[in-house]
């Protein structure tokens, strides 16, 4: 059960809440489907300022941070925006904009920012906001690495141990995540894992002399939010954490992001956070093809595809541009085209590591074939621990090239 923290020092003056702390409180709403309708998704939708107001209100209420008198006044009001609570939330929204975390925009006929009613305003996350969310996701996932080893692997080549050399030191932001498990556990075990802090992490220093090009393939087919579970938000958090890790700790590396669904397209990291699920099938072949095109432009020691998905290939782009779809089982036509793209990856020296959020037998068989063909690895995981798997796999691959 998640712990609820009461921020009593902010009672009566919520608009004094620090912007970075507020961003931390609403990060799941910003990254997730909370600002989209999962039953009628619009992949082109942009969140509005009203959505942001609701996200802040919900975050404050969940943490019991709203003083009793403000809460009662808001519950009795016809429009919460006209209450003292609503006015404080409006000031918090203004502060997010002033501090550079969001950019308010109005739609007009020319597609440029213009004037309009408050309810018509949309907002975009800024580069500062994306960097903050990536850093926060990375820190959260780092904490998970200290709690347990990401085992339960299903394929032959994965090893949770990492061969490293060098002196031990306490982790500082910007260091490589070569965690020394024994020393880290020694710092944490006496006080409990729920008290884990960044200062408890101990790393073993190592020297790297390799570079890698990575393309992250994110499945945004409709199944990623069906069955009562949001799998897409954790996938985006992992992608942002990986981007931050590579930018700050592996400056010679590159990472690009591809969304695959009925077709596939590259998205910049600045647009990744607010990408949405659509009513799509799964065009794995299209995603692999685009990933190969992006990797061919890179001159790196290692080229790899990190594919995060929860379903079998069910769509294919035909030579004339039409989309062929079959959601029932592994269609031989779709499967054959997908495996041809996997074979192309092998011939190009591209490793495909698959992080699978489902376990049905047909899917397991398909993923094993992909892994065997490219000498990659397959991980069958859950939305709760996928970040540990992805980051440990990436760091392990890097540490194998230690000097």
TrEMBL record:
Coiled-coil regions listed: none
Superkingdom of source: Bacteria
Protein's name in the database: VWFA domain-containing protein
Segments forming domain VWFA: 211-394
SMART domains: VWA
Signal peptide (residue range): none
InterPro entries registered for this protein in UniProt: VWF_A, vWFA_dom_sf
């Amino acid at each position: 059960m998640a712990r609820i923290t009461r921020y009593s020092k902010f009672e009566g003056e919520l608009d004094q809440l620090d912007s970075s702390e507020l961003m931390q409180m609403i990060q799941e709403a910003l990254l997730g489907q909370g600002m989209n309708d999962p039953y009628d998704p619009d992949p082109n939708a942009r969140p509005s300022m009203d959505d942001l107001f609701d996200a802040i209100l919900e975050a404050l209420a969940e943490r019991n941070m709203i003083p009793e008198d403000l809460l009662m006044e808001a519950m009795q009001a016809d429009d919460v925006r006209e209450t003292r609570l609503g006015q404080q939330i409006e000031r918090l929204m203004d502060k997010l904009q002033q501090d550079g975390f969001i950019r308010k925009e109005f739609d007009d006929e020319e597609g440029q920012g213009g004037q309009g009613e408050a309810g018509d305003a949309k907002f975009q996350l800024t580069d500062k906001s994306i960097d903050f969310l990536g850093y926060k996701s990375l820190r959260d996932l780092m904490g998970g690495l200290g709690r347990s080893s990401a085992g339960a692997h299903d394929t032959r080549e994965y090893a949770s141990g990492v061969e490293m050399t060098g002196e031990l030191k306490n982790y500082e932001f910007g260091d490589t995540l070569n965690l020394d498990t024994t020393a880290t556990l020694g710092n944490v075990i006496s006080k409990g894992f729920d008290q884990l802090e960044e200062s408890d992490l101990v790393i073993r220093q190592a020297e790297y002399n390799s570079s890698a090009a990575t393309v992250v393939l994110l499945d945004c087919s409709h199944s990623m939010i069906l069955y009562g579970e949001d799998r897409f938000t954790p996938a985006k958090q992992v992608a942002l954490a990986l981007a931050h890790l590579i930018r700050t700790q592996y400056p010679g590396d590159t990472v690009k992001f591809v969304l695959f669904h009925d077709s596939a397209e590259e998205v910049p990291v600045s647009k990744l956070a607010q990408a949405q699920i659509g009513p799509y099938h799964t065009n794995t072949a299209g995603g692999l093809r685009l990933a190969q095109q992006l990797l061919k432009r890179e001159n790196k020691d290692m080229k790899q595809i990190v594919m995060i998905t929860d379903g079998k290939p069910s769509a294919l782009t035909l030579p004339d541009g039409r989309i062929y779809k079959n959601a029932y089982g592994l269609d031989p036509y779709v499967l054959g085209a997908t495996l041809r793209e996997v074979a192309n990856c092998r011939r190009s020296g591209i490793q495909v590591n698959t992080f699978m959020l489902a376990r049905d037998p047909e899917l397991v068989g398909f993923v094993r074939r992909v892994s065997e063909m490219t000498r990659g690895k397959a991980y069958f995981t859950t939305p709760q621990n996928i970040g540990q798997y992805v980051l440990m796999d990436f760091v392990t691959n890097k540490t194998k090239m230690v000097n």
